[in-house]
Amino acid sequence: xxxxxxxxxxxxxxxxxxxxxxxxxxxxxxxxxxxxxxxxxxxxxxxxxxxxxxxxxxxxxxxxxxxxxxxxxxxxxxxxxxxxxxxxxxxxxxxxxxxxxxxxxxxxxxxxxxxxxxxxxxxxxxxxxxxxxxxxxxxxxxxxxxxxxxxxxxxxxxxxxxxxxxxx
Length: 168
Prior knowledge:
Layout: E1 4-11, H1 22-31, E2 36-45, H2 46-55, H3 62-90, E3 95-102, H4 104-115, E4 119-122, H5 129-132, E5 137-139, H6 149-163
Parallel strand pairs: 1-2, 1-4, 2-3, 4-5
Helix pairs in contact: 2-3
């Protein structure tokens, strides 16, 4: 029997927030009849990485800055992906982690094709993914605490009144 996999892309902006939906994701995976594994991809956007390297005003040459910044970001990615993988392991879901540098959309699609993924599970929807994904894309949003309409309005007016000048 062929191993079934889901692809879970993480990025610098979404990885820590993923912990808010991890229970929803593990519940969904465990409800599937067959044993499913998860490939966690921590994707570092190559353009943003290059911008960070060029913006860094330390007195190092570009090659040294590139290595230092890349190593730091990759190390952080490995740490976060490892933490999420540990939660998956506790729930009986086998997983692997990879840290990739490149265009997030291209890396997600490439990984989904290489593993014949049955789904891509994400917290956000990268622009254009639905048009090129080789499998279904499932987006999980964090459960929001419900708020009464009157509380929201009161909150809004309360915030405005603290900053608005009084007229006499």
